Amino acid sequence: MRILGVAAASAALTLGVSGSALACNITDFSAEATCDGASGSIVVTDTDASGTSATITVFLENNGADAKQVGEAQTVKGSKSGTKVTFSEDWKPNAEYRVHVVVDTEKFQIDKDITPNLTTPSTACTTEESSSPSPSESATPSPSASESESTPAESDSPSPSESESSTAPAGTSSNAPSPAVGESNLAETGANSNTGLIAGIAAALVAVGGGAVWFGMRRRGAHSGS
Fold it and tell me: Are 72 and 15 in contact (CB under 8 A)?
């Protein structure tokens, strides 16, 4: 009898342990915020080995109240390895989500939230292009020192606009009539102001020379007459 009692107790204990292992419980559910490139998602995992159907609903929280429901409620059947259900959501950093689980069967009844509420990471989802430089950017070489030094040398040569602007005054002055050479010399030396004086001296010299010639011819005639 003692042996039968021990066997019955062992069997009951074994059935109790196996029954509790297959029981559907809120602790079988977990949630996380994930990224697929720039797209965000709320992923709920059900590790209920009994495979009981559960209805999952996700809500965005704002100051302790439901701000909106994320998508539609989804049904999931758990497994020992874990069954995932995904809710597409462009979540913001440090946002809070409430994940509600409902199980209503003959064996199990659950109507609870996954605790604590899900808090998203502090960094938003980003694309691969924005997080890493593109091949064209990385392949572009930076300007070398020799190139940077040669650039000012090329800029020293006058541009077409500069050469045109420098020659423009010369072309303008060539169109105007230039003064005569003699006039410019007189204007520079001031000789045009002494023209009357020079003419008077020349006339006096001519008169003196004419008088000297006339006087000499008269004396010669007087000597020849005597």
Answer: no
Residue 191 DSSP label: G
Q: Which residues contact 185 (CB under 8 A, 6 or more apart)?
A: 191
Give tens-digit pLDDT for 162-203: 544 444 444 444 555 555 544 545 444 544 557 778 888 888
Strand partners, 76: 54
Whole-number Cα distances in Å, 211 to 207, 221, 225:
6, 16, 21
For the chain, the structural domain boundaries read 26-119
- Smallest Cα–Cα separation from 102: which of 58, 152, 65? 58
* CATH topology assigned to domain 26-119: Immunoglobulin-like (2.60.40)
Span 103-160, pLDDT tens digits = 999 899 999 999 999 999 999 998 765 445 555 555 555 555 545 554 554 555 555 5
State how far the Cα of 155 lies from the Cα of 153, in Å rounded to an integer: 5
The residues, any chain, with a CB within 8 Å of residue 110's CB and separated by 6 or more, are: 24, 25, 26, 54, 101, 102, 103, 104
pTM for this model (two decimals): 0.50
Q: Measured in whole angstroms, how far is the alpha carbon of residue 145 from the centre of its chain?
A: 24
Nearest to 47 by CA among 68, 25, 17, 74: 25
Strands 65-69 and 53-62 turn out to be: antiparallel
C-alpha to C-alpha distance for 72 and 74, rounded to whole angstroms: 6
**Which of 36, 43, 34 shows the shortest CA–CA distance to 86?**
43
